[in-house]
Amino acid sequence: LSVCLSVYHSSPPLSPPNPKSSTFPPSFPSSRFESDTSINHRHEPAAGPADARCTSTMALVSKGGRFMLPRPSPTPTRWIGTRGRRGPWALLSATANTASAPPTRPSSVARTPAVYFSTHPSRRSDQTQSTSKPDPAPKPQDGGDSLPKKMLESAATSFASILVLAAGFAIAGYAYHKTYKRIVLKKMTRAFTPGDPVLELAAIGKEVPQNPAEADDRWVQRPEQSRIDKIVDGSEVGHYFLILGEKGTGKSSMLIEAMRKIDGDGVAMFEAHADLEIVRIRLGKALDFEFHEDYIGGYFSERGPRDTTALLDIERALNKLEKVAIVNRATRKKPLVVIINQMHLIRDDDDGKDLIELLQQRAEQWAASNLVTMVFNTDDYWVYERFKQLATRMEVMSVRDLPKRQAIAALAKYRVKYFNEKLSQTKLEEVYDLVGGRLSFLNRVAKSRDMIATCKSICQVEKTWFLNQCWILGAEMDDDVMDQQKWAAAAMVLAQALVDSEEDMELWDDEKGHVLPSFPMHKAQQIMTRADFIRNMDRLNLFTIAANAEVRASSVPMHRAFQEICAEKGFRDHLESTIQRISDIESLGRTRELVAKDLVLGGKYEIVREGKNGVTVKLIEGEDRGMYV
């Protein structure tokens, strides 16, 4: 609240003291006013008995300021209350005899001041202290267009916020998308750097030596090892390779040994599988590719790859591999190498054919441009047949059992490693005569205390496997198993033909060792009288089809099983009776039985053949002898 003090006195008007001044009349008694308002001092004329002018003084004191006013004289005063500056709550003080006196000039006689109290804030501008003059009305504020203006400002602010947010998300999403692609390529590049732990674990599992000294001590060097070393280190370019051979011949071990020599630099290897989803996962692990499973671009409204089949994911991984090969081509000077092991595990169906076709297309393209060399390893011949249809740059490497000299040397090294025992030449040749040069068999025999018993056990296992799959049931078999017996009889006929062919060939060579009898594939199909059975027999490791399409027993123990089975008493008669029973069942299936009815009283049918058009059947009725003859 502001307090206005108007003082009517007879003395000359007092000039308002300066509150900022450090000097103040010490003779005046003072009063302290502490208020949040201001006090105005103005000079106004006042009436008095001496016709002297009365001066009204108003002092302005700012908020929080302190001002010392002269205390009014003890002249009797009259208090009149007014509101506001001129209202009912203001107090008017004046002398009783100054109400009707005309204004006069100020004199030296002291006059009683009039004091006004107001609750309204005082104005900084000078105004006259007249009770009749009304206060000026406040000016209206200019707010006619404030609402549309505020709406426009709010809309502009919202639009700017949305625009900034959208631009921020777009920029962040684009930056993340580009950064993610670069990270994917870097991760795949690291997959071909030396020291891959996956390859080290595979080498340990395959019992590949970890240092050259250990390799010289017990590692068996195959004749194909030198070429595989050139393929794996990238020296041999312009082709992709298919390694074909029976299981246990050392194909995977040679590949891992070649990788060990270069510490896996520029090489990636994974195992195939019948399920394409598992193939996808294994390929991603080998290439360090996540198939965009860790992609979070959707938070930035960036659309990621669609969820599709495993075959399309494999295609995406190969696309990334091609980019990595192109980027690293200038620095490496050699192509990258991708090895797919156990290709025979892929199913021989439409999905498997699509996968093989996809891989072969990439292999052909990369071999022509020297970007990536792909190596396929398989046990079965049907994989070669699939590749052969579209192959232009494919080379086939056939891996077979070790020759006699190398097999005996391998067995001697294995025996020294496991038992520190040096075997005699006679013992080594006896073992080789039983199991041949198959590395898996030689390793198993070398770990056994009784090697001869283990060799016989291996031969018995192979014989049991063959009999469980292909044994024939004879003349008493049921017609429901005819389809399976056709397959079994064909296998037995081929096994007997291989055993019988031993009479016309030499089965032993001083340098090579065992020479197993074989037939060309078309000749084997002719012997079995079926063309669709031999591939399934190859998958079951009953027979094997070499890269040159020669059909023979899958191993030396399996051929010994053929010899034992065919040498059994009555086997040939049993086989002939089984084949005859199959023919009879098929004949019954092709025969139609006609039953003649209503042949009474000597009636009969007359069947006349009418050339090539068919036959005519005519009913001839018998003689009617009557009922009481």
From TrEMBL:
PANTHER family: CHROMOSOME 1, WHOLE GENOME SHOTGUN SEQUENCE, ORC1-LIKE AAA ATPASE DOMAIN-CONTAINING PROTEIN
Keywords: Membrane, Transmembrane, Transmembrane helix
Entry protein name: Uncharacterized protein
Keyword Glycoprotein: no
Bias (Basic and acidic residues) ranges: 33-45
Pfam family for this entry, one: WHD_AAA_fung
InterPro entries linked: AAA_16, HTH_AAA, P-loop_NTPase
